[in-house]
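Tutorial handout. Part one gives the primary structure; part two gives the three-dimensional structure as tokens.
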Amino acid sequence: QRVLAEDQTTLVGRPMVADDVQLYVRTYKEFRDMGLEDAAQQVLREGLAAHPDCSVLLELKPSDREPVQLEEEIEGELFRREVNARGLRAMLLERGGRLRVHNAFPEELAEETWQTLRNLEPSEWGKSSSEIYDGDTSAKHLFYRYDGDAIDEAKKALKALAPDYYSNFQGGKYETSGLIQAHDDSAYFVIEANDKNRSLKYPAGTVAFRKIAIIYYLTKDWRQDYGGSFVDLHRQEPRPVVPLFNSLVAFLVPRVHEVEELKPGCPARLSIFGWFSDDVPYRPLSEHGPELSSMDARSQMQPSP
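Part two.
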């Protein structure tokens, strides 16, 4: 990380301002010149928090007419700092509704969780398939889930990303032929009395609506030709995301996506997945920006057969 020299120069055409304001401005501009938009915006936020009425800093703030679209990929250390400062939903909105995080958590936690998942007995995994229930109308899918407490440390780290929401996470395993066809993750449910994730804010009986989805990848040396990529179908052109060890994908719900079918002979694809939910019902997509998409809207866009 670059060390920025502190000098006493003034801004051109302006009276002398506080030394720390000059440092905020200089650091902000240098980070932007290096292409580190996330870091630049964080510096600006910190500067405005210390000097909320400073006109020099206010002029650097993006206007409503010229929003800044931040990169959809970020490193874990900066991501966790940003989440703590402003919240996960705000970060997602700044990036069009989806975010990919590299090196999401400390390596030790990732390694331990990976070893735990890969050493589970087959009987500890429950099958989830659209063929299990007669008349099931969900998207075609096939994978296995783990609901035990052996990965609670990783789930605790995930829950800390959005502590004001109701959260539920579980282990996931895809093997040959595993997949999920196009869907948008929208769902609502009643929190049960025996739900260990219930809280004073979200007690039993609360109707909850999924709002943010998380997939935390815990498979090493994955190759795209194995299949199993997360495919963002939100835009016209599909955007595959290959699972990388200790990375995560977060996105606002609803958002249309799928998981590619796994090819024969590939290793198991391991992850932890789940959602942050609240008790606010869904609003029509027309009341949101372009960060959301739904299967209903998608079907209306498809040409008639």
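Part three, for discussion. The chain is about 25% helix and 25% strand. Residues 1-17, 63-68, 300-305 have pLDDT under 50 and may be disordered.
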